[in-house]
Design a protein that fits this description.
5-stranded mixed β-sheet, alpha/beta, 7-stranded mixed β-sheet, Metallo-beta-lactamase, Chain A, single chain
Length: 295
Amino acid sequence: MSIRAFLMVCAVPAALGAQNFDSVQVRVQALRGGVYMLTGAGGNIGLSVGSDAAFLVDDQYAPLSAKIIAAVKSVTGQPIRFIVNTHWHGDHTGGNENIGKTGALIVAHENVRKRMSTEQFNSLFNRRTPPSPAAALPVVTFTDSVTFHINGDELVAYHIPPAHTDGDAVIHFTRADVIHMGDTFFNGGYPFVDVSSGGHVNGVIGVADRVLAGCKPTTIIIPGHGSVADCDALRRYRDVVATVRDRVQAEMRKGRTLEQIKAAGLSAEFDATWGRGFIRPDVFVELTYRSLGGK
């Protein structure tokens, strides 16, 4: 998928008229301790089930809501009571309105509600995202962290310094030891540092460091995109991002222009593995440059 196509589907759900969701299958992958990952189109969904309720982390696109609800029903008879959004992009929040109307309470960092409430503009890609409907907005917001005592587990959603956006939240299913990192972790691809939404490459590295500090050999990590991961996969991702960041920063200190930096092949040794995802190598270098203050 090209970066322009990715931005269309991740940030602008209202513009999805040309995209056909009829053939999309929502698949359920059991992880551990009543925690699952759901995949379909858009960001990976986390799901906790148990005697209390179904608890969702993100909800992809509005046209997939019925399929997502059916997938949840395939593993539990409990209703969806909570949705936590990891950030504001439409491939993670597009189902808010539909699933919220079934009785689920939508929760997110306060910056998610702020960005969903107003038109957003991505300057690098010259793309505008209109405000979300009122019914899609988070009803409960937090600034630092919030804990849900549900399904025999403690689900801790905590905000981290700007990384993918300025409203990112990581959700730790503590008893199951499963961590949903949202789009602060693209497993198998370069990160999308959404500078126009307050994102910063240093935050991408910082959140990886924070998660890794508490990682165990058995910890399961749900990335925003890509397959289920472990701590070693997250460490490899973190090291690649930090290496490219350091190289871009060194070139900036030498007074190199963006064009010179993009032409220098700073990520070349990683591109075969990491440059085949949503974000092309040159785009990642440019986003890194811009998040470091380059104009």
